Amino acid sequence: MASNKVYWKSFDQLANTEVSQRLAENEFAQDIPADVFLADERSLEAQTSRRDFLKFLGFSTAAATLAACEQPIIESVPYVVQPDSLTPGVPSFYATAYTDGQDYASVLVKTREGRPIKVEPGDAGRFNRGTNARAQASVLSLYDSARLRGPILNGKDSDWASVEASLKKAADAALAQGSQFVLVTSSVFSPSLQAAIERLRQGYANFQHVEFDAVSQSNTLDVWEALTGVRALPSIDLNTAQLVVSFGSDFLSGSTAQQLSSDYAARRKPGTGMLRHVELESNLSLTGSNADKRVKIKPSEVSGALAFLVNELGGSAAKIALRDDLTKALKSVAGELKSANGKAVVLVGGDDTNVSKLAAALNALVGAFGTTLRADKPVYLRRGSEARVANLIADLNAKRVGALVVAGTNPVYFRPDFEKAIKSAKFSLSVTDRMDETAVLCSAAAPLPHYLEAWADFRPVAGEYTVAQPTIKNLFNSKSLLEVLGGLSGDPRSAKDQVAAVAGSLGLNWNQTVHDGGAAVTSGSAAGAPAGAAAALAASAKVSKPVNGMELALYENAVGAGYQANNPWLHELPDPVTRLTWDNYLTIAAADALAMGFENETNSDGSLDGSYATLKVGKRVLENVPVFIQPGQTAGTVGLAYGYGRTSAGKVADELGVNAYALGAATGYATVEISKAEGTHEFATVQLGHTMMGRRIVNEVSLADFIADPKGTNWNEKPTFHTIDGHKTSEEANLWANHDHETMHMWNMSIDLNSCTGCGACVVACHIENNVPVVGKQEIRNLRDMHWLRIDRYYSSDMSKERAEEERIGGIEMYAKMEEPSESPSVVFQPVMCQHCNHAPCETVCPVGATVHSREGLNHMAYNRCIGTRYCANNCPYKVRRFNWFNYMANEQFADVNPSQDDYGRMVLNPDVTVRSRGVMEKCTMCIQRVQYAKLEAKKAGQPLADGGFTVACAEACDTGAITFGDVNNAKSAVRAAKADARAYHLLEEVGTQPSVFYLTKVRNA
Amino acid sequence: MHYESPVRQPLILGDKSYNQITEDVVRPIENAAPRSWWMVFSIALVMFLWGVGCLAYTVGTGIGVWGLNKTVGWAWDITNFVWWVGIGHAGTLISAVLLLFRQRWRMAINRSAEAMTIFSVIQAGLFPVFHMGRVWMAYWVLPIPNQFGSLWVNFNSPLLWDVFAISTYLSVSVVFWYVGLIPDFAMVRDRAVNPVQKHIYKVLSFGWGGKAKAWQRFEEVSLVLAGLATPLVLSVHTIVSMDFATSVIPGWHTTIFPPYFVAGAIFSGFAMVQTLLLIVRKVFKMEDYITVQHIEMMNIIIMVTGSIVGVAYITELFIAWYSGVEYEQYAFLNRATGPYWWAYWSMMTCNVFSPQFMWFKKLRTNLVFTFVISIVVNIGMWFERFVIIVTSLHRDYLPSSWSMFSPSFVDVGIFVGTIGFFFVLFLLYARTFPVIAQAELKTILKTSGEAQKKHHSDHGAHH
User: Fold this and answer.
1) Among A93, A706, A750, A879, which residue has the fewest nearby CB atoms (within 10 Å)?
2) Which of B61, B69, B70 should we substitute to test contact with A (largest number of A Cβ atoms within 10 Å)?
3) Pairing relation of β-strands A293-296 and A276-281?
4) Mind telling me how many Å the CA of A279 is from chain B's nearest CA?
5) pTM of the entire structure?
6) Is B62 inside a domain boundary?
7) What single DSSP character describes residue A79?
């Protein structure tokens, strides 16, 4: 029932009086004094009228609203259709193969949200599986903003169609005019590229393909080609070897180093039958540093020494007089070779024909053929020919070249004679990743894709075929060489189709092959070489007399041949032996330096300075070469690294160091005249103390002692303290309450000093994984490197505590002499990162508790809480903590070097790891992001965390398996087994820090 | 009336009346500043501003503008911190400990000594703050409730103890100093002619009326505060020394540090008092109050503490050898013979050898010689901290990480800036505060004034 009740407000209304009626008519019960207000003229004249007030109110509300909205707008476009394979935050891995013109490796690429961010070793069992420093760093070369962005024709921006048309026109014109059409590349071991080149050859009768390697193996290849009929080097199989004798062969950092390092380490597990390594070399190389016995030799003495061994082992070679001490050393080497009984291999460095012949002969004599030296399983990574390079230069100078295509290499930089010659080509095109020294002289340049952007395939070694797949779409307007050449020979297929066709012809399942990154195939094997023919080579080899003057031996450090010279990570990585960064320099023996007046001096701030030298090889002169005094350098020899002295590579590499190729020492060795030059060079070193000062830092034992005392009672004693209750170890004499380390995971790391070769791949891997800033030369010179993981290198000294006691030498003199490395030092490497102490000195001193202990045995660092007192770093006995001295992300000083300051370089940052701000401390976290990820994955799967299911970045990068990471609470874990090893010890155990990292004693097979 | 033996030397020279003391003390406040004051003040101000610029550069760019590196994480910053804290020790010792021991000679010097304490603790405090990488987060060292969750400071950290020790010391010193100043401010107020000045001193003197009750309370408060301040003399530098002593770094990890640091602090503090008072007495013509006897007493303290410090140095060497710890042995060998030998031997010469001259009365009463030695001692004590911090850090356990240290212009600039700041404060103080505790001094005029003493001995104590 609807209500018609009427509510009343007052009795007047109820009574409906007159007054109430009048009031009801009036909207406003009370008079509004509008007239009064408007009549007041002053209020009208007031500066802020009501309307103004409303305007102001409106404006300020709008302004405040707008200001609140004005955040930097970063456009992020969502996927219209989410790709199946991509989950944000979850990495995808792609098998591929890494090549940069110099190196080859089978790798796995980690991508996040479509960006490749990390290169990791490929599947076990694959040839040269693994990542050296360059392979690790190569992902940053993808994001190098110095890369060529699009085709350039006659110095102007152009397009592919025009450049290809010009090339076609030039090639056709050359064909018509009878001049040459030449393609210059580094060694080609890609079947599909070889096929494309073959098709081109059929289309152009005047076509020539010149392959050359920056660091040439041409003469050696000639010797082996004559022996086997295949232009390739034999592979080296250390798995059955008992003895390696190497003459200046830096095989642990050469082109197959990943393979050899891994085999080498596996064969050098301490115990009976451990591989023995004798190195005879002039420079102190990484390989020589690992040798059990190292003999100093001059490059010119090598042929004589090999001839001596050939004769000792029953062959016949020319005889020549050698130094007495060298003869003595060689006699003992000959004895070892004989007793190795077919399980030895002789390796040689450089590229001398006679040395290669003698080495082949010697290998035949020691029975290496078919066992440790596999000519039947050739490695195709090096195929270059210097003779053809010389012909090309002559042809160019004689203007016989109508069209020249340089692809993926840089002849003007590697072979300075090209600089003049290349201008004589009628048309030249450089298909290149950047406007390098060659491209700037060519009529056209066009961008080559990075290996992570392109399809390719490889036959690195007999019996293996690998496919490289792109992991990101081309960043720039680049085109695969397969397609460029295809266009010229009328082959319209894409690079992928060309590769797929080759894989198909090999009978491989395409999807499976791409997924696996390759497959075993039967093709590519060679017949092998007859040992008799090889042994006979000795007679034909010319044995040269040792040179009296100074000799130069060129070598490669982490920068390698120089293809990736613009990669700051490779410069920031200290040379494993000299511990210098951002430079190449002349290494010289102390005695020679003294004689020539060269000096190295440490300044009051710890920075290192050195003299300059001028080098003269024949008529070629190299000026302003910094001189570094190197212990272990053979007197009468000097060393210099390739890969520096770039002039057109990018802001990182340009004007850094000197160009060793400019000396034209094609075999890697040359007689050199050295004179002192004016000026002082500023080095950037990371290590000033070179010896262990009699401390037990790297524990070392000889193999004989190790075998005699397998429990380590005498060579791995724990330091003890004298207490009232007798001798106690630091763990027993503990003043602290222990953490509970039983209930949860307990992460430990084992570092086998016997396996570590010191190569530095782990250091680069750590940089990449953890977004460690690159600080550049000046800051490293200021001793402010940011490496979370470093590899300490110690030399032995002639002085020891025992000797001081024997000869009654006082403490002051003893320690002063201990600082001096021996002239022929034995070398040890020790990777040191945060030791994750369970009684961490850093944790107690932080006033704000920014660094704390985890229940899993790790030492955490809360960057957000850190206020930067640096007390923790001071109190760290291992000195592994690194302080953010500047804002490396924004400070202009680092704009050229730090990838995170570059719009492209920033893409390489690992999204799982915070980029640290200025003023906070950072250090190794044991890749906590990986640990957490693995734990969460295991939790999601409802499975216990499996040992070996994941590992930290440094352990993963290590080819030799020197680093093992895992949970010691898992009874089956590898790290637990390592901890129980008699060789295990903690660094600075006596400080009582109880680290979670431990080391395994180095055993030298001496 | 207290009777004092005529054998005791008078503490106030000349024939002074109460009014004469007032006049002498108030003269620098009431008169215009001499040109020499302006000159010194200008120099100090320029130094101070230069330091401010260097600090601004540090805060704006990063600690990287200093000379530190991955191995040497502290150098001039903490050296300067400890040095200034050390200097700050003499004030409290003179005003509190000597008050408790009823050493009347302190009365002429305690005001300035304490002013020096406060000003140098201010300098000291700057370093732990500005040495932080993220100085804008400095308040995180304070245990204040916060919105970060259950975050709390780390009470295990000696740096946190420093925060408490220094802030307590500074606040107690300021209060103690200020309480002593109240009657003297009142005196200035009473004499002031300029109304602005009068008003300022009126506020400063808290309405002091000089009643007997007020005096009684004043005495009691002074005694209580002296009792509170006395343990601080020992605790502050003990705690500062624990920054080092509780660490694991050879050369730092030493149980002798607390007494050794306290002795060193008193040593350097007295040297600084000496330096300042020799200038003050000359410039403000206070030779009658700050007498040669005062100087001599302080020289004796310098000699004794210097010798204690010397014994500590030798003990360190002995213990390093006796401990059999190779790292420890090397650390001390390296101090004396390593790359920083010159710093070690500068320290030894300045701190151990130079005070030994004070055995000779002729030398310890020679003002010029005293002045020179007081400066030498402060240089030596700066080197002591440099030696402890830098030479221990630069070569510790792993030779691979050994390094060197050399200061940048910013390091030097900030240090110079704090010296400038200190003198700016001290010079302003000398022009506006009564530099001698005249109210206290007047209490001993009858017993220890030269003329009065002479009168007593001539006419007997009672009349």
Assistant:
1) A93
2) B70
3) parallel
4) 25
5) 0.90
6) yes
7) P
